[in-house]
Amino acid sequence: MTYRAGFACFVGRPNAGKSTLTNAIIGQKIAITSSKPQTTRHVIRAVLHRPDGQIVLVDTPGLHRPKTLLGERLNDLVRETWSEVDVIGLCVPADEPVGKGDKFITGELSQLKATVLAVVTKTDLVDKRTLAEQLLAVSRLADFAEIVPVSAVSGDQVGLLTDVMAKYLPESPQLYPDDMLTDEPEQVLIGELVREAALEGVRDELPHSIAVLVEEMFVENGVTKIFADIYVERSSQKAIVIGAQASRLKDVGTRARAAIEGLLGTKVYLNLHVRVAKEWQRDPRQLRKLGF
Ligand SMILES: Nc1nc2c(ncn2[C@@H]2O[C@H](COP(=O)(O)OP(=O)(O)OP(=O)(O)O)[C@@H](O)[C@H]2O)c(=O)[nH]1
């Protein structure tokens, strides 16, 4: 048996199902999914251990037209990741027509050394005939090594997809130890869980304006104590996040705490503070502080 190991990532337009697919493959919630576009900010590596190899999954934000410094940084990050991986899965949702966005990304991928697979996602949302038509439309986009239809929600073909990805990795010794699932620091994951909770149910313009920074974290009498700041750009946004009599912030805290307890497996005390960092998306100092 040849042992293979290498890096893989999923790309595709916003909402294509990349994060959900990553989570389905790893079988544990590590990235953030949301029905709102462009919520994946951090590069998250997750390691899938197999008898015949190791797939290191890298989660990238989407490539988009940069409007702010944050947008430019994100695009640089995406391109850098693409140039470093062995296998790229271009995700195209089964339930939306192939469009300009897919063509744009496919064009960007053609220069890379990586093997490019097409992944038709969300197959549970369409009937067989629509899926067949979509597979045909996707095959016309480019000369993909393989085209794999999957549903991350039903789990259909997820195993097959990882088999196909593993096949295209280079022969290599194991890259990470057996027990490693992700090298993303816990604090970043926790920050993402708080951010996800803070985003729930707020107006559409808020997603890009919220960032979370875990300021302090320590264990005391078996309880993990976490002090985190939620950053918004304007005081009007602060009011939205906090809610009347802080009711909304309380809910955010309750939901985030439950999610963090699930991640850490300990009791959690969570202290949240909402702060205004004016125009943090455009300010290099703020961006660095918030991990971009
Ligand atoms: N029915 C169904 N819905 C899915 C599936 N995969 C993802 N979704 C939904 O599609 C939406 C977008 O999924 P994400 O995984 O966040 O998409 P993404 O490509 O990572 O999005 P960005 O982070 O914005 O780039 C979410 O509401 C998911 O629940 C699937 O296999 N079936």
Automatic annotation (TrEMBL):
Positions of the UniProt region annotated as G3: 59-62
Residues making up the signal peptide according to the UniProt record: none
UniProt function note: An essential GTPase that binds both GDP and GTP, with rapid nucleotide exchange. Plays a role in 16S rRNA processing and 30S ribosomal subunit biogenesis and possibly also in cell cycle regulation and energy metabolism.
PROSITE patterns, alphabetized: G_ERA, KH_TYPE_2
GO biological process: ribosomal small subunit assembly
The protein, known as: GTPase Era
Occurrences of domain Era-type G (ranges): 4-171
Species assigned in the record: Spirilliplanes yamanashiensis
Recorded GO MF terms: GTP binding; GTPase activity; ribosomal small subunit binding; small ribosomal subunit rRNA binding
Domain called KH type-2: residue spans: 202-278
Residue sites binding GTP per the record: 12-19, 59-63, 121-124
Gene that encodes it: era
KW Cell membrane (keyword) present: yes
Record keywords: Cell membrane, Cytoplasm, GTP-binding, Membrane, Nucleotide-binding, Ribosome biogenesis, RNA-binding, rRNA-binding
Region annotation G5: where it falls in the sequence: 150-152
Matches recorded under Pfam families: KH_2, MMR_HSR1
Region of interest (G2), residue spans: 38-42
Upper taxonomic lineage: Bacteria, Bacillati, Actinomycetota, Actinomycetes, Micromonosporales
Matches recorded under CDD domains: Era (cd04163), KH-II_Era (cd22534)
Region ranges (G1): 12-19
